Amino acid sequence: MLLNPEDLNQISQRTLRHYEDRAEEFRIGTLDHDVSQNIAALLDNIQGPPPYRILDFGCGPGRDLRVFAARGHQAIGLDGTSRFVEMAREDSGCEVWHQDFLALDLPAASFDGIYANASLFHVPSQELPRVLADLRAALKAGGVLFTSNPRGSNEEGWNRGRYGAYHDIDTWRGYVERAGFTEITHYYRPAGLPRDQQPWLASVWRAAK
């Protein structure tokens, strides 16, 4: 079903309100999550000497943004939830942009890497080609995009107050490749568990030169 502008605005506003209302609860609940595998998957695949200019897309309260900055990279956060933007700025000391995922305004060819951890699944499939194109344009030639999303069987809709699209690897690959990326690798998380206990699909992509 085609989503009209009013539908898309409602998706954004309701999803962002969900996070605004639970910002501190979310911060505490995710503070100790170990995503070192994901951070390494991005940084290890960026070509050229560090430090790198990194966009933490959907940075939330700033947990991973702080890690990038501590490692000496020029890290910039982006989130649509105003409370998360405040938290991330305070916690990391980094620049953080307040932008809706469906209304991005990103500088062209600016980033060595974009880290989209648990964020792009909130973009409706209808809008995903446009958003991925925006991210592709914001990367330098050969730059790297990391994504991690809850995997599924291509179902989409409301889930406990948030809008989500839950793709399998083949469908996700199609979207990202059509946006001008080449796959480097993908894997499922948490590591070391049977597939039915790995709800997260992580993937790493290189922007075409």
UniProtKB/TrEMBL annotation:
Pfam families: Methyltransf_25. The keyword Cell membrane does not apply. GO terms for molecular function: methyltransferase activity. InterPro entries: Methyltransf_25, SAM-dependent_MTases_sf. Keywords: Methyltransferase, Transferase. GO terms for biological process: methylation. Residues 54-143 form the Methyltransferase domain. The keyword Transferase applies. It comes from the Bacteria. This is SAM-dependent methyltransferase. It comes from Bordetella genomosp. 9.
